[in-house]
Amino acid sequence: MSKELSGSTQLWNEDLAPTSAAQRTWRWYHFAALWVGMVMCIPAYTLSASLIEGGMSGYQAVLTVFLANAIVLLPMLLIGHAGTKYGIPYAVLARSSFGTAGARLPALMRAIVACGWYGIQTWFGGQMIYTLLGVLLGGDIGGDKIAGLGINGGQLLCFLAFWGIQFWYIVHGMDAIRKLETYTAPLKILICFVLLGWVYNKAGGFGDLLSAPSQFVVGGKKAGQFWSVFWPSLTAMVGFWATLALNIPDFTRFAKSQRDQVLGQSVGLPVPMGLLAMMAVIVTSATVVLYGKAIWDPVDLSSRMTGAAVLIALLILLIDTVSVNLAANLVGPAYDFSSLAPKHISYKVGGYITAGIAILMMPWKILESTQGYIFTWLIGYSALLGPIAGILIVDYYLIRKTELNVGELYREDGQYSYGNGWNMAALVAFVIGVLPNIPGFLNAAFPASFPDVAAEFKTIYTYAWFVGIAISALVYGVMMKGKAMPAVRAAHP
To answer: One GO term of the cellular component aspect (predicted)?
Structure first.
């Protein structure tokens, strides 16, 4: 197929082509390590903080995090199946439902969200270097803020330094990322226990926060309000990995077998995420005893340590942020950008574009101006990505019965070209899946401009991912009933 299509299509390049047997080197423990590596990250740690601050007890927060990750694991495994069976990335799989041209739309949406995340994580990494240098040099560095940027020279240089560290891995490709994840995952688990031991000894126990009741109990500050906090929190937690639920074929296409991807992801996602939330609650509980207030930011906590502990803690956080950012926020958009113009954009060039956009987005300004991390950023993009997941799952399982004609996915005039490359059923299902969430999003993101949104729309928005995936799946299933052409049973290329 490579020789036949490489010179005649705008849909194929070496990076988007199905993986060969030699490229399928990922075993279950690689996937488990990938997830342990991605779970152990600063945003995941601080997500638990938002739940405690919202009124939950430590146990309620941990259970909410675990439940959300058990829920999002299902579309991960369902969509990941196609990657392993056919060796194709997300951007190519989307062609079977959206059309060979229409697939660029979900690819671009996934890519833009990832660029934002890539920039934010790079900013976190730069801030760690900045904090580390400040501790080592005994004071603040960098001087006055640069006009127009809003950060000082030291912060800018540290941001660019961390950006440069990650760039090395972009140049060296997927195998370098797999090795990084595999080797650093055990280190992250070890440092979690070290951190727990450190706070226990320092504080003489784990503090009162762990045993404190939730604010929803009778007589509490938010008595009777549990469900109004639980549902948006659950949706936000699902939204946290909603991007990966879509582009998981970018990883599972390298799996040795379906068993490897299913077992590895099942072991690596829900339990470690729940354990990380538990650790966040325990450590923060101890910080109340140590410092007189709850410190949820691990970078802030690390900077308060003394001696070699500061250096070790911040170096571990740096390694952690590199591995998370590359796996969660680089691999997907690199393939997605490549799919927009395969003749001109390879996987590596797609990675360069992602890294470039991450700088231009000035992530420190996004963090500075985005109010309501849960209601705007996480739930907002889950409202976009949920409908895409619903369409992909219904198309692959109910319409195609997991049978794809892989060669046709790379042909502009093949069975997945529909009308001029666009499948209107997918577009209509996507739009209808997103529409109910728009009023709630506008109210959450711009409350001053959209204050009069009906309570029903606000309620719908708290279930954004669930609403989107259900509506789009139903609409797409109805519109495509009886329309799918059977896949030609041929040897997979």
So the answer is: plasma membrane
